[in-house]
Amino acid sequence: MKTVLRILIAGSLVAHGLVHLILRGANSWLTITLGIETATLQALGMALIVITIMGFCIGGLLLLFSVKWWRPITLISAALSLVLLGMFWELSFWVAVLINMTILGTLLKVSWLKTIDRTRRVGT
Predict the structure, then answer these.
(1) pTM over 0.70
(2) Looking at the 3D structure of the chain, how many domains does it have?
(3) Residues spanned by the domain of 76
(4) What is the pLDDT of residues 4-35, one digit of tens each?
(5) First vs last Cα of the chain: how many Å apart?
């Protein structure tokens, strides 16, 4: 991957991770629907926010330095981000859902294509 592209993607991952800070102190629809205490959801939400932010930031840094572990870390972070968005859903979060789905789809497709390519080379 070209250096400039790697820097842009890494910066975007870090920025996307930091955006999760807006979820601090958000109210969850789960409190009303399932009767879970607000404090419990806030604590769980804060733990997921910290893990998600760390995951995207670490994933971005690993990509920047071409460490292959950036993909699984970023995949997990995008999945956790979707869980967070579901917990604290507001209609304005649809853009974040699209971003996470794009991250997941792109990384899974690239990984799948590399697996197929390796299989073809071994089989021939």
Answers:
(1) yes
(2) 1
(3) 3-123
(4) 999 999 999 999 999 999 888 888 888 888 88
(5) 26
